[in-house]
Amino acid sequence: MSRETVPGGDFLLSFVLTVVWLGIAGTALVSGLDYYLLPLDARAYSELAPLFSPTGLVGQGMGIVGAAMITVGVVGYTARKRLRVLAKAGPLSQWLQVHIFLCTLGPFLVLLHTTFKFGGLVSISFWSMAVVVSSGVFGRYVYVRIPKTVNGRFLTADAVADKVRELTRSISAGTGLRLEEIETFLGGAAPLRRPAGLVGALAFAVREDFRQRKELRGLRTFLNARHVPADLRGPVLALVDEQRRLRRQALLLNPFQRLFRYWHVIHLPLAFVMFLILGVHVAVSILFGYTWIF
Question: Shortest CA distance to 270 belongs to which of 129, 142, 121?
Fold first, then answer.
């Protein structure tokens, strides 16, 4: 398990980053909310303008910090994927989570920097950033549904099948149930059909996501009916959930790998355009004398 995945570490990191994201974003939004709610023609006369306007101390600071977060998130994750010297610097899945954290919180701070007022170059910069973020969210949805090693290498269909068999044996050893009985239940009365096409694969993935909670109740009933000891049910449920997840991923393996390659063709150029426009925006701001605290 340790060579393939690190689910506990991923979950803890995801939880911590989510709490930190909400804390920073919430504090930043609430602190300037009175200013953001003012009509546009009244903002220049507000006593809050020196702090929260796009050129104000806090407003401009959020733009700088947000842009720095985006840059660090992109450069750091790209370096971890491409530089051998960083190959052992933690699981790629956790680097991805930090990348997502920085590249969603950063744009939110940039949004507050604009004070929800878009026009000219700012408009182009913001909407290019919004498209990149939306594209990244979609790419992450696809990426996490492709089975992979802890180093981020995609597993082959044979490797996924081997992992499914290994998990099935672990479930049998933990419950005392026969392999045939487990296979019958896990396969279900109507085995999953391989989705047709990329759109069909996406629809299948979304549909199966909604079915997970219902299936979890069925798993508990199954284990109770077979008199599996209560202290074993939690670990067994985790194994069964992982096994069923891999079964779904095996069906999505080929179409989602293709979809991920297509996504890269779109996402990377968009990110380049975003950084280009961001650089122009920063250069123009400096030329007009907006240098923050420097």
Answer: 129
Answer for the pair 142, 260: CB distance below 8 angstroms, yes or no.
Answer: yes
Residue 203, pLDDT > 80, answer no
Q: How many C-beta atoms lie closer than 10 Å to residue 189's C-beta?
A: 6
Would you say residue 63 has pLDDT above 80?
yes
Q: What is the largest CA-CA distance in the chain?
A: 76
* Span 174-191, pLDDT tens digits: 666 665 665 565 554 445
Closest CA to 278 of 135, 22, 103, 27: 103
Q: CA-to-CA distance for 286 and 294, rounded, in angstroms?
A: 11
> CA torsion, points 259, 260, 266, 271, in degrees to nearest 10?
160
Which pTM was predicted?
Answer: 0.67
- Residue 241's closest CA among 177, 180, 170? 170
Instruction: Collect all residues with Cβ–Cβ distance below 8 Å to 205 and sequence separation of at least 6.
Output: 141, 145, 248, 252, 256
How confident is the model over 13-39, as a mean pLDDT? 93
